[in-house]
């Protein structure tokens, strides 16, 4: 059969099925009419979506595909040095602690001053927070800023639960009011 005859046969079948002659069906252009202005349009330029995770994975895969494993011990040590697994030469015991050079060691140890003004002077919360301060003062791996943020997190937590703690008697209101009077 000729392809023309097949097309005519298909057209006849469709026209019988839908009851219309297909040659008379009009196409509609959806974008030719005026919009209804139901939605507001923001003229934001689209520069494409930035996929940070996707790009990081792609970079990692590219690095893995192009890099070759070390062939000897020297290349292995160079790779470990670049990854930060081995200290850079010449050896410096304070490598990576540049931001801590400005901070006196006493700020790492004496953290009780951060409890003044918000923590009760006695009771279970004070005891707990003193233990937190002792633990943080013995931790050489946290910076002073991280230690302060750690204590601030506990402060925010206990202040959010202040009503419940006062109800069960763990938050001593009288000792805190005396504390604020002596500070004023």
TrEMBL record:
Keywords: Mitochondrion, Ribonucleoprotein, Ribosomal protein, Transit peptide
Keyword Mitochondrion: yes
Localization terms from the record: Mitochondrion
Molecular functions (GO terms): structural constituent of ribosome
Any Gene Ontology CC annotation: mitochondrial small ribosomal subunit
Family: Belongs to the mitochondrion-specific ribosomal protein mS31 family.
Record protein name field: Small ribosomal subunit protein mS31
This protein's encoding gene: MRPS31
């Amino acid at each position: 059969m000729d392809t023309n005859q097949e097309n005519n046969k298909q057209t006849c079948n469709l026209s019988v099925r839908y009851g219309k002659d297909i040659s008379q069906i009009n196409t509609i252009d959806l974008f030719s009419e005026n919009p209804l202005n139901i939605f507001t349009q923001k003229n934001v330029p689209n520069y494409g979506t930035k996929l940070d995770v996707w790009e990081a994975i792609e970079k990692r895969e590219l690095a893995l595909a192009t890099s070759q494993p070390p062939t000897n011990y020297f290349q292995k040590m160079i790779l470990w040095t670049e990854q930060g697994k081995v200290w850079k030469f010449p050896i410096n015991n304070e490598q990576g602690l540049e931001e801590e050079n400005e901070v006196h060691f006493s700020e790492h140890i004496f953290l009780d001053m951060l409890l003044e003004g918000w923590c009760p002077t006695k009771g279970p919360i004070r005891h707990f927070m003193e233990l937190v301060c002792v633990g943080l003062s013995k931790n050489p791996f946290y910076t002073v800023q991280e230690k302060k943020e750690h204590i601030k997190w506990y402060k925010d937590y206990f202040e959010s639960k202040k009503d419940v703690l006062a109800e069960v008697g763990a938050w001593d209101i009288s000792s805190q009011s005396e504390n604020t009077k002596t500070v004023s």
